[in-house]
Write a structure and sequence with these properties.
The chain has a single domain, classed as 2-Layer Sandwich (Alpha-Beta Plaits), CATH 3.30.70.100. By secondary structure, it is an alpha+beta fold.
Length: 96
């Protein structure tokens, strides 16, 4: 069953570091059979308390595969770059 990884960015304190993270992370997604469904830094909240400045949606063949990617040595090596360069969050979503 298809699963999605949704990443949100709330603040970028190191644009160069975050740019490097994005390039390196994309290769890890592809290695695990994932693909970028969409990504944007033109985000506008309609209501509620959710106010990211950027969002990305990744698609994987299954929730298990998405978690394998997220916990892989390859992605674990670059994840700290994201965490150091700003404020962000990640969720998993299983498609019905």
């Amino acid at each position: 069953m298809t699963a999605y990884v949704i990443g949100t960015v709330y603040d970028v304190t190191d644009p160069v570091g975050f740019g490097e993270y994005r390039q390196l992370a994309q290769a890890t997604v592809e290695k695990f059979g994932g693909k970028i469904v969409m990504g944007s830094d033109k985000v506008e909240a309609a209501d509620g308390n959710w106010s990211p400045i950027g969002i990305i949606v990744l698609e994987f063949e299954s929730l298990e595969r998405a978690k394998q990617w997220y916990n892989s040595p390859e992605y674990s090596a670059v994840r700290p770059m994201r965490l150091k360069s700003g404020t962000s969050g990640t969720i998993f979503a299983d498609a019905p």
